[in-house]
């Protein structure tokens, strides 16, 4: 299924898609010391970003709920997102952080299990050395997730996919999702190695992929919609519409574009897909993967 970009294709309104879930947003109260990853070339991110700041974007784009994903590697981050969810029902799920390498991992998972809003966990593997995913203590932690029906978000760069191929083969029954399509090198328009490994990973039917985070892998604010189409072709062909989920990566997306641009780009890409397929990518896959409670 090679979808060709047409610059004259009409965009699709949110109403044509129906309701949507954003599977990847971040919230923080900016702290210069803690958030040192937000460097001076990211000044737009050096401020608070909370659910009330996202609300207007969600309303305008037909997004009824979101999954809040960790950015700090500390249990206090998980508690922060849980507390936010209590006062902001737009948060339908939380992907928190816990030290999956800890000897007392079972105890910590049981501790957080009382918070049903927590759907899974993530580690910022993109910042770790090669081989991190393959360490026995980390894999012991991943094995512990299934008992609680927790998911795991895989955050890596494209050059780390060799480890991901081996990693996912060890967890055929664990719900896994690739964040940001594994951050392909869109800026330099390289695709071949990333493509071959994505195809291999997608053969495992328990692995999903988020359509998120690609704006910041292109030249910031100097991209065209067609830059993303070859990469979207790959993930749509590899994972199919049953294992892809829309996500914005807000507010990080603001470094290179705005919310409506990304959602509209995916809508345009899918303009010739069936309404059922669109609903899967924008709504039902997220609901199924994260076992969301949409009544909250």
Which segments are poorly predicted (pLDDT under 50) over 5 or more consecutive residues?
Answer: 1-17
> Helices and strands, in N-to-C order?
HEHEHEHEHEHEHEHEHH
Report the biggest beta sheet as strand number plus sense, adding barrel if it closes: 8 strands, parallel
Number of strands: 8
- Helical segment count: 10
Shape: globular
Full CATH superfamily name: Metal-dependent hydrolases
Q: Radius of gyration, Cα only, in angstroms?
A: 18 Å
Q: Give the N-terminus to C-terminus distance in angstroms.
A: 37 Å
Number of domains: 1
The CATH topology is given as TIM Barrel
Pairing-aware structural class of the strands and helices? alpha/beta
- What fraction of residues sit in β-strands? 5-15%
Describe this entry's structure for a reader:
This protein has 296 residues and is α/β, with parallel strands linked by helices. The chain has one domain: Metal-dependent hydrolases (TIM Barrel, Alpha-Beta Barrel). It is built from ten helices and eight strands. The protein has helices spanning 14-17, 51-60, 75-87, 105-112, 136-145, 161-169, 192-202, 229-239, 259-269, 275-290; strands spanning 20-25, 63-69, 91-96, 118-123, 151-154, 176-178, 207-211, 244-246. The chain has an eight-stranded parallel β-sheet. Helix 5 links the parallel strand 4 (118-123) and strand 5. The termini are far apart. 43% of the residues are buried. Mean pLDDT is 93; it is low at 1-17.
